[in-house]
Specification:
Length: about 375
């Protein structure tokens, strides 16, 4: 005979008093990663998928984020729902990237990205007077991390990552610039929170942009206002001679449209191919305005060249999971598209300028050493 348990359960079924209820053993039930059958029937959410993602990004931190392990990011992810959801979204995207074809990973990526974007929008909708410096820091850090997801090829396109027809240079889809729109949203974000930017850069800069060897601090809101860094042929082909020094990048003149992206690329074209410079180069979408985007959508040859040159710079980092596929595919597509336009056969000096530009475009993926000299291999040191 099985002995009765040595504890009692009180039951308040009677209004006149209490009585001792019978002990009932819990019925055996099968357990699963997604929850037991009872939880599934009641649609009870379990935390196991999140725990798996947490374990994944802790184990593969450097490979996922390409930055040294940061205690402050970990602390923020515990206390700030926006940082937590964004980190989980990046981890889910990486998990899908390294194990393509697994349905559960695709679902996790979709769910986590949806949660992160909702949290991001919630913070954006918060009245400015109710936001603190730490809130703005979290917002910009999340924007940096979400840009990784935006640049990574989605599963549907990753299957055909070598197909130029899927690229913005050839695609006929109306949303072919969608990934760029999310990244370009960083620019209005900078303008909206300009009073917080200085301290926010002090927080974000050491995480992504500082060169540990030189101690250089990067201010990616900075643009050179002169033409000294821009090659003369760029000045001519992009009509920058009448360059204005204002901040308007949405004007109708070529100088207003091409100034910021051309100056940014002139600064980045020969920087050393190391980890911190990858994040610097990744800020190119924040330098384009609505007028430049419209030209890209219409496949303007000069706008495509600038975008292609930037993609070529991003190709210098082939071991970075979130940029390697899109950068390689879209860069090759831009080269193919411009080659099909036969821009090098334009008459007179314009054709000569385009021949030089196309040669530069073809050499854009070549890594640079510390002196800015091209090296034949794009695989550099341990920092990349």
């Amino acid at each position: 005979m099985v002995p009765r348990p040595n504890f009692q359960v009180l039951s308040y079924n009677s209004a006149s008093g209490v009585q001792v209820g019978e002990y009932r053993r819990r019925k055996f039930h099968r357990k699963a990663i997604s929850g037991c059958s009872a939880c599934k029937a009641k649609r009870v959410k379990t935390a196991t998928p999140n725990l798996n993602l947490i374990q994944h990004f802790l184990t593969h931190w450097h490979r996922i984020f390409q930055i040294p392990f940061q205690d402050n990011i970990m602390s923020l992810s515990k206390s700030d729902p926006l940082i937590r959801s964004t980190v989980l979204a990046v981890a889910a995207c990486h998990l899908r990237h390294v194990s393509p074809g697994v349905l559960q990973h695709r679902i996790a990526e979709h769910v986590q990205q949806s949660v992160a974007l909702r949290q991001f929008q919630k913070v954006l909708d918060t009245p400015r007077e109710h936001m603190s410096q730490s809130d703005v820091d979290a917002l910009f850090l999340s924007a940096m991390l979400l840009n990784m997801i935006a640049f990574a090829l989605p599963e549907a396109e990753a299957v055909h990552d070598a197909t130029a027809a899927m690229s913005l240079a050839f695609s006929s889809h109306e949303d072919r610039l969608g990934w760029l729109d999310l990244q370009a949203g960083f620019r209005p974000l900078l303008l909206a929170f300009d009073v917080y930017i200085e301290k926010t850069m002090e927080f974000i800069g050491p995480l992504f942009f500082d060169d540990e060897r030189s101690g250089e601090h990067w201010d990616f809101t900075m643009l050179s206002k002169g033409l000294d860094r821009i090659p003369p042929r760029w000045v001519q082909i992009f009509e920058l001679d009448g360059l204005g020094f204002g901040c308007d990048t949405d004007g109708n003149t070529p100088a207003a449209v091409y100034r910021a992206p051309a100056t940014f690329l002139a600064y980045m074209k020969d920087v050393e191919t190391i980890r911190c410079n990858m994040f610097k180069a990744g800020q190119f979408p924040a330098k384009i305005g609505l007028a430049f985007r419209a030209l890209l959508f219409d496949r303007d040859e000069r706008a495509l060249w600038l975008l292609g040159y930037w993609l070529g710079i991003m190709c210098r980092y082939p071991s970075v999971w979130w940029c390697q596929r899109r950068a390689k595919r879209d860069y090759s597509a831009v080269c193919l598209y411009l080659g099909g336009l036969q821009v090098v056969n334009k008459p007179g000096s314009e054709g000569e300028q385009w021949r030089e530009l196309m040669q530069e475009l073809y050499e854009a993926p070549l890594a640079r050493d510390a002196r800015g000299v091209q090296v034949r291999s794009t695989r550099t040191g341990k920092e990349v």
